[in-house]
Amino acid sequence: MIGLKSTGRQSARLRLDAVNRWRVLGLGGLALFLAGCSLKSGPKNSQNTFRPKGEAAQKIDNLMQPVFWIAIIIATAVLVATVFIAIRFRQRKGSDSRPKQIHGSTPFEISWTILPAVILAVVAIPTVSLIFDLDAKPKDPLNVTVVGKQWWWQFDYPQQAGIDKKIVTANELHIPTGRNVALDLTACDKSLGTVDENAACSVIHSFWVPELSGKRDVVPGHRNTLTLYTDKPGTYLGQCAEYCGLSHANMRFRVIAQSPEDFEAWTANQLDGPAVALSDSGGAENLFVKIYGCTGCHTTADSSLSVYGPNLTHLASRTTFASGSYPLNRANLIDWIYDSPSLVPMESKSCRLPPPATCVGMPSFSKNTPPGMPSMTRAEAAELADYLLQLK
Ligand code: CUA
Questions:
Q1: Is 205 in the pocket of ligand 1 (CB under 6 A)?
Q2: Is 28 domain-assigned?
Q3: Phi (first) and psi of residue 119, to 5 degrees
Q4: Is residue 264 part of a domain?
């Protein structure tokens, strides 16, 4: 008697455990699902493809919305029908009768072949025409070359009418509102003078600013194009959308859309020489050039040069650094110069060794120092940061 009772209690507990497990799974799943629904905008969370702010993104959304709802209607109809049929025609206890078999029914076979074909054809017409539309060469564009590197973005503004000097900047793409911006996307191209055939440029990236446009692959030795157009000034977050190694997830960027006047002012500033010459930087020059060899990868002297690392000639005019991962301020910059791999993972242990050592990313100047090389102090990092922060 007692034995039976406890078995009954055990099985009741087991049933309860199973119910709880499903509840936990259900609630957890719901929480994860709802976490993706935030519609908060602004630079903190504006990688939102459902909030188009650019022409291309709007056109994609206009196509995506009806196709999405058609798909939802069809999926719901199929699911409801499947569940209904499974219940309605289930095998019942004590009954041997089978429902009417319709395998090989000509009317059904024809209708469920033709109907999907018609729906797909209807969806294909606007889809294909939009592909060609988005690929069309824009009129009177501002040209910008985008170079994907491990793990940051370089933006080159080639010669514009009236400007006889190139602008090379990093991670913050300034564009004017109300004008087409024709992007020329590539990764590692010798003709651009963008570095060597080393690991840092031999991978595929993907350029994506969800609020402005669709994705475009960024391929070594190949040119892809993408047009951006927006009439809304603002900061739009972008992200590398193709796995490209250790810090792929940290390969962010910003598109800063400005009124034409503000964009002109930005251009004029970028075309200027550095606000402070390296030779006037006091002790920083020795640290930057001789002791830590920063000039091996960066330049602070000429905003038209493309080198291994980001061009720093106007670093202080940017709002972020490290491919958009950190706000640009003194404390962050000191941490970065001192030991960047602790802020963004990088494969850069051998970076301070001379070639043929290969290098991906920025090395730590305070950890894993190769024998015979100096190790940086925080005071030195601060001196370098103070110099760089003057480069408006
Ligand atoms: Cu670059 Cu992922």
A1: yes
A2: no
A3: -60, -45
A4: no
Q: State the average pLDDT over residues 318-335.
A: 96
Q: What is the pTM of this model?
A: 0.83
Residues 346-386 pLDDT 10s: 988 888 888 777 778 899 999 989 888 999 999 999 999 99
Look over the chain and give the mean of its residue pLDDT values, rounded to a whole number: 88
Q: Which residue has the tokens 């990764």?
A: 187
Spatial neighbors of 256 by CB under 8 A, at least 6 apart, are 172, 173, 174, 175, 234, 235, 236
CB of 201 within 6 A of ligand 1: the answer is no
* CA 343 – CA 292 distance, rounded (Å): 19
Residue 96 has pLDDT above 90, yes or no: no
Which residues lie closer than 8 Å to 342 by C-beta, 6 or more apart? Answer: 335, 364, 367
Which residue, judged by its Cα, is nearest atom 1 of ligand 1? 205
12 in a structural domain: no
Question: Is the minimum distance from the CB of 240 to ligand 1 under 6 angstroms?
Answer: yes
Together in a domain, 228 and 283: no
- Per-residue pLDDT at 39: 53
- SS3 call for 176: strand
Question: Left, alpha or beta for 87 (phi > 0: left; psi -120 to 50: alpha)?
Answer: alpha
**Higher pLDDT, residue 351 or 190:** 351
Residues 228, 364 within the same domain:
no
Q: How many domains does the chain have?
A: 2
